[in-house]
């Protein structure tokens, strides 16, 4: 069977790793450590609002982004999180676990002969710790630390294209804002894994395809031959 693509890259956190579950567990562990109570739903919502603002500033290591975002989110909820607790929150990231469909999907794609990669808004060491959760080999890694910027800037995609060369490449991601927008801007085919069943933004751009999870993505790409 002739494959349409040679390389499939993924966003990591939110696409392969349960990002929301990880943030909630990070706040829960941090609150227990500090001896405070916190509304985890409110903390998660605040985190999602604040992190893009922090990432939009001057580039800094992702550990600092995690820590600052956690502190600002906690402050919105009336908890003055100290620096030690913020660093503890950041250090929980390697413990955040994959979605149930992640490893079966990666294994199936690897067995079919695809080269797999990750384009992630994270530091090298944090991603290296996360990759231990995966049961299929990851051949290409592009991090924010390597390119000195955070998606939706296009640095990850430009670096990946340079490394991939002329091979046929498909990107797959959960975040329309962080991944679909910059990929479309560069004319790269991208599949939106719309785990949260979000509506397509009125101004687009539309992905090549939209699927609810990675199981459906594998079925979609197998159906294309």
UniProtKB/TrEMBL annotation:
The keyword Transmembrane does not apply. Pfam families: Hydrolase (PF00702). One of its GO terms (molecular function) is hydrolase activity. Keywords: Hydrolase. SUPFAM superfamilies: HAD-like (SSF56784). The keyword Hydrolase applies. This is HAD-superfamily hydrolase, subfamily IA, variant 1. It comes from Roseiflexus castenholzii (strain DSM 13941 / HLO8).
């Amino acid at each position: 069977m002739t494959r349409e693509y040679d390389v499939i890259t993924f966003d990591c956190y939110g696409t392969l790793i349960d990002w929301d579950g990880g943030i909630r567990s990070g706040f829960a562990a941090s609150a227990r450590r500090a001896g405070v109570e916190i509304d985890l739903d409110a903390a998660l919502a605040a985190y999602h609002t604040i992190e893009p603002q922090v990432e939009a500033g001057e580039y800094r290591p992702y550990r600092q982004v995690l820590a600052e975002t956690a502190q600002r989110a906690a402050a919105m909820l009336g908890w003055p999180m100290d620096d030690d607790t913020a660093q503890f929150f950041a250090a929980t990231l390697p413990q955040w676990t994959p979605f149930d469909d992640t490893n079966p999907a990666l294994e199936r794609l690897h067995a079919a002969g695809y080269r797999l990669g990750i384009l992630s808004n994270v530091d090298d060491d944090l991603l290296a710790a996360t990759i231990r959760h995966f049961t299929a080999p990851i051949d290409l890694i592009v991090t924010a630390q390597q390119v000195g910027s955070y998606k939706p800037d296009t640095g990850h995609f430009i670096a990946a294209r340079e490394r991939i060369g002329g091979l046929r490449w498909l990107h797959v991601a959960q975040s329309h804002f962080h991944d679909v927008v910059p990929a479309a801007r560069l004319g790269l085919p991208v599949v939106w894994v719309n785990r949260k069943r979000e509506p397509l933004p009125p101004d687009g751009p539309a992905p090549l395809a939209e699927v609810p999870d990675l199981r459906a993505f594998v079925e979609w790409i197998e159906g294309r031959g």
